[in-house]
Automatic annotation (TrEMBL):
<feature type="transmembrane region" description="Helical">
    <location>
        <begin position="72"/>
        <end position="93"/>
    </location>
</feature>
<protein>
    <submittedName>
        <fullName>Membrane protein</fullName>
    </submittedName>
</protein>
<keyword id="KW-0812">Transmembrane</keyword>
<dbReference type="GO" id="GO:0016020">
    <property type="term" value="C:membrane"/>
</dbReference>
<dbReference type="Pfam" id="PF04241">
    <property type="entry name" value="DUF423"/>
</dbReference>
<dbReference type="InterPro" id="IPR006696">
    <property type="entry name" value="DUF423"/>
</dbReference>
<keyword id="KW-1133">Transmembrane helix</keyword>
<feature type="transmembrane region" description="Helical">
    <location>
        <begin position="105"/>
        <end position="124"/>
    </location>
</feature>
<keyword id="KW-0472">Membrane</keyword>
<comment type="similarity">
    <text>Belongs to the UPF0382 family.</text>
</comment>
<feature type="transmembrane region" description="Helical">
    <location>
        <begin position="48"/>
        <end position="65"/>
    </location>
</feature>
Amino acid sequence: MVNKSIFQRLLFIFIGVSGAFSVLFGAWLAHAGQHLSPDVVEKLQTAQFYQLTHTLALLAVLFVLKHAWSRVLTITAILLVIGICAFSGSIYIKYLVGWQTVGKLAPYGGMSMALAWLSLIFYAKRKQE
């Protein structure tokens, strides 16, 4: 059983850190990241965009969870956190640190994000019943 209060606080912390990192990294990439090749910049911009948009999606899920706790939305939130870390995180590490093998996590992160979006169908179906 997940302690709802602790889970919600951890999500707020994750959202705060992820959102702030997205904004700061985007600014760094636009200014100090000019020394990187255009191909690398494009990949990092994609990771940053996905991180920011899915962090906002996670925030929306959290607001619904605060008003109506749901096991499905809890799973949705977990999938979004995993997706953000695995997709964006692995791309950041691959291209900024040079650890190539970690880049193999990106597709799993993308699938986790997609599953999070699809899980909303189950939430809608349950609410309908």
